[in-house]
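Response to reviewer comment R2.3. The reviewers asked that we include at least one raw input/output pair. We reproduce the pair for Purple acid phosphatase-like protein here without editing.
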Amino acid sequence: MSIHTPRAAKPVHRRTATSLAAAAVCLAVTFGGGTLAASSAFAATPSQTDIVLGVGANETQRNLAWYSATDTAQVAQFALASKVVDGAFPALAVSVSATGGATTSGEFNRFATLSELKENTEYVYRVGREGDWSATYSFRTQDFEGDFNFLFFGDPQIGSSGNVPSDSAGWVDTLNVATATYPDTELLFSAGDQVETASNEGQYEAFLQPDQLREIPFVATNGNHDVGSKAYQQHFNTPNLDTTVGTGSVTASGGDYWFIHKGVLFMDINSNSRDNAAHIAWMNKVVAEHGDEAKWKVLAFHHSIYSSGPHATDTDVIDRRNVLPTAISDLGIDLVLQGHDHSYARSYLIHNGEKANAAEEAGADSVVAGPGGVLYVTANSASGSKYYSLQNKNFWWLSAENQEKVRNYSAIDVSDEAITIKTLRSQANGDDKPVNSIVDQVTLTREVEPDTDAQQLQVTVPETAPGEFVWNIDGTNGLVDLGTAVDAGDHYSAVGSINPIRVTDTRSSGPEWSISAQVGDFTSGEKSFSGRYLGWTPSVVQSGGDAVAGERVASGFLGGDGLSVSSTLGHAKGGHALGTAKLDAGLELDIPVDVTDGTYKATLTLTALS
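Raw output as returned:
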């Protein structure tokens, strides 16, 4: 059981699209994705640039973003690739009106969402307006359920070396290697720092050069080199964006966002904002509303809190490391993806900011997480624009670390049972470490199903004599949501009810029986308060077998022990009739105002005597 207690514009620049279709050439659609050349009747113009195919809120959507040279009404059009004839864009296309406005670089950004996509289907799309269309691109959806792969990239940071063409070439090569090796990958996931200078559109143009960013959904993370301008927010159309959390300023980008892909809840927070309490509250809300839809939970943010590079000892990183891990464990998050330190690191499983299992060996190729165990991965550079050396301080959290100063990427395979993170070299390091040789690999599985909600009721049920006296929790829902406690003057108050208990007694002699319960202390990390503040009002909601509800037990807030001592939920006297009864109890929790805010859990243990 748990309860949360309350507490100057640049001149306009004109850029040629990187994949303009040749007006005199007609090509068939390539089912692996890519640019579809337009017929002469549908020749592309250079007016639309910076096109990015972003991830949608779920598998049925794709979010598009692009820049236009003029402030005109724009649309995105998409159609079945099978309807393309002689390279001409299909007449039967869906048009989606775009939103947007002036950019910080003097252009105009546009957002549109392609919706109601079908699984295992090839689509073509273009953006612009009649007589002024972009090149035509294609993408394909895959199964909407089941196993999948996505690719994770650390800090491209184009321009960091001082040589934009070199950085861009490294970025392009990594994407080419990764997508050729994993042609069915479903997401391209960035750890942040897309560019060196947040407002530099030349660097963005180089970052956006690869056509994979128009073929495979891209997941952007806000890095410290991205936050200083609205350009990040104007280039990437992220789903379910909450700009009130991790908010930017008038000139800076901000916000947290989430999406669900094939049963995985992804949350991406803007760690440039150090309002950790706001991030935690937002994650609690998202998990409370959508956690039960997810078989895995993955969190991403830029500033690695468990790395081996120089940022590991930065004051701001230490602050995040002191605050975030307990909340991450409490939320049942399985995997955290990070960047910022331009070196590879993989943590031990970490629970509430401590090593979860003292016996876990360094570099193990498989780890089994118990409740609250979290794996943290930090990506090395995907472009080679900048590398940081390791600190070699034997940080307690490091299971694996690597810095060879060659480009890396991570291929992440997700199934119902496991997540495998394989980090590979996209650049050879001598003959013995060629392209696609493995830097590190680990498979994450779970000892038990993770919490699907931070607010749960855990019940210990003893064995009973089969066929004689049987009792169990009615239904399969093991969660009790007491919600967020409300201010009640001299205390905080929360209410709810247990999951009903069904009792069946078919013994001919009808011996006496009783069901009782006792709650332990409510805890949140190292904080706690007594279970005596929990009370209940038992009831019989389905009569049978002469069952009688137990007496009301008041919260111990004003005195008494509450449910911290064993209390009767229901009973039947000797010689009772045969039959089945269902017992329920309304819960009332009164919390002193001096209890520190947080999400608290307690275990309610039920015992049957007969």
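Residues 145-446 form a domain with the Purple Acid Phosphatase; chain A, domain 2 fold (CATH 3.60.21.10). The CA atoms of residues 154 and 352 lie 25 Å apart. Further pairs are available on request from the corresponding author.
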